[in-house]
Structures are given as structure tokens and as C-alpha cells.
Amino acid sequence: MAQALARVAPARLPAAAGMVITRLTGPQKAAIIVRLMLAEGAPIPLANLPEALQAELAQQIGAMRLVDRETLQAVVAEFAGQLEQAGLSFPGGLEGALAIMDGHISQAAAGRLRRLMGNRPDADPWERIAALPSEVLEPVIAEESTEISAVVLSKLPAPKAAEILSRLPGEKARRVAFAVMQTGNVDPVTVRRIGFALASQLEARPARAFEAAAAQRVGAILNVSAEATRETVLQGLDEEDAAFAGAVRRAIFTFVHLPQRLAPRDVPRLVRAVPQPVLVTALAGAQGMPDRAAAADFLLANLSQRMAQALREEIAERGRVKEKDAEAAMNEIIAAIRSLAEAGEVQLNSGEDD
To answer: Is the pTM of this model over 0.90?
Structure first.
């Protein structure tokens, strides 16, 4: 904002820098600054102010007439001086405080503060709703009536609304899309009440003890389990709940999935992140088993010829590897890949098209 003021301030600003305007009130000075910046096309996020302040500012601007150049220079100089003296700014209000403290306070405390914030008459429930991830909103919208769902999607950003609509069952999605056309006559008070009711419903949900879904947690456990154990558990899950078993299989990422999940260009980066004895043990333990051998060949094929040949010689010297040692080495390679992916150094494919 200081740069914007420097652009719109009159040329005689330094001469008025020492003046202090006492006959103008704070709202009048604010109106002068806003009027000047709007006239010059400078961006001002007035919509972030509480609605009451926006209304007061508009009324003040409407009540004022001419301001002489000397007064304008002095007001701008005073305001610019205040900006230059500012060392730290706070967001103003609970909503801004929660935004900057997200991830640093407990979910229970954040939920309690949001409920307090939602009880204020000037609170906007749709801002809180729009900030929630699509996977949280989708099941709630799926259970609501067609009319309520249409209102909710109309208040969400278009990309998020499209994502949620694509997740709804086909018939429900068609009815909701048609109902959106009929939301034009819904009055703002009703939309606000719907927002408060939905926000209360979402915030009343009990805190989740686990961030990851059940299938993801089971998959993570089976990733580092012995192969025999993994296959036995998956077979049992297939018999009990085929859909859940499918979700677990998609969450599993083991050594044999390397050709589908890891991009060839990222193989050298992976090899540098794994101690060579571990790599040799895993590659040697993959020999004689088709799925594992294919993964080993994938790694070797995407290394330089010299490095690949050196590894093949070490594999031949290593000889037979105990199954326990081979699985431990393969798990260490997968752990290294996940660490690289979390750091953004490699990009894993979903593997869902296989």
C-alpha cells in the first residue's frame, strides 16, 4: 500500500510532511485516502473489512465534498508516515487469526473458536465452508436435499463445486445441476441461514483420531510386512469386503510396483539416496522371482551402463540372499522413495491404470 500511495501522492508531498491534521476525524481521513487511491486505480481490499465498517466508510465518502490540496497533502503524508512506522500487522478478527495459526493449535481448540466466530452476526459462514476440502464437503452435500445442495454448490468456488459434483452419483448430480438454475430467486437471508446451519453441522463433527483413511493405514502397514503376511491379509480382506480390499491394494506400494509408480528419470536420484549395500541386497534378492526381477531390471535399465554393470557384478558376487534380508532391503528402498516424494524431489505415479 505504501508503494501505491507513493504513486498517487501529489508532487508537493514533502512540503506537507510535517503537518498534522486535527480538524478531520479518523473516518474522514480514511475516506480521503480511499477516495484518492480509488481515483488512481490502486487496488484496495475493502471487501476484507467488516460489513459495518464498509458501510460507514461508504456513508462518510458520500457525505464529503471538496478537499483542498494542502489538506490532501497533509492527510496522505500523515498516513504514509504511519505506514512507515508500522512494524507488524495482525489479521484482525478470529477468522484471520485461525488462518495464520492453522496447524499450530489443536483441532478441538480451532473448532471451539470457529463456533464462537460463527455466532457473531457479522460472520460469513460461507468463507469457512469454502475453505474446507472437497472430501469433507462431498458426503454432507450428498445427504442434503437437492435444493440445499444446489445452494451450497452455487456458493462454492467453481473448481471446488465441479469437483464435488463429479463425485456425486449420476442421478443426484443431474438433479442438483438442474436445481442450480432455480436458485436465482433465493433471498440472501435464506442463503445465510443455510450457511450457518451447514457450518454448524460440519464443525460438530467429532475430531478424527487418524488423518489418513483406513485403507491408507492398512496399506502402510502391509507395505513393510512380510510378503507372505501381506498376501494372507489381502486374501482375507477379499473374502470379507472386496471394495475395501481393492482400496488397500491401491494404497500398497512395494518393490514390485516400482516400474508402475516411479518415473524412469527418477531412478538415478533414488539410487543415490539408498546405501549401495542395501541396493545390492535388494537386487540380488529379486533374482529368480518374476515380479521382483522385473522391478530390478527396471532400476538397472535406467542407470548408466557403467553403473548398471558394476551393480550386476556386485549382485553376482553377493550370491544368494536370505528372504528376510531381501525384504528388509526392499522396504528400505521404498521408504527412501517415499521420503523423496514427500520432499518433492520425485513424482510418484498413481498406478491406478495398471
So the answer is: no
